[in-house]
Amino acid sequence: MPELPDVEGFRRVLAKNGLRKAIVRVVVRDARILGKLSARTFAARLQGARLVAARRHGKHLMAKIDRGGWLTLHFGLTGALQFVPASGEEPAFTRVRLDFAGDGGLAYTNKRMIGRVGLVEDAADFITAEGLGPDALDKRFDFAAFDAAVSRSKRDVKAVLMDQAIMAGIGNIYSDEILFQARIDPAERIDKLAPGQRKRLFLKARAVLKAASAHGAGSERFAERTPKGSLLPERRKGGICPSCRSPLKIFKLGGRTGYCCPRCQGC
DNA sequence: CGTTATGTTCGATG
DNA sequence: GCATCGAACATAAC
Question: Is the CB of A29 under 7 A from strand C?
Answer without folding.
Answer: no
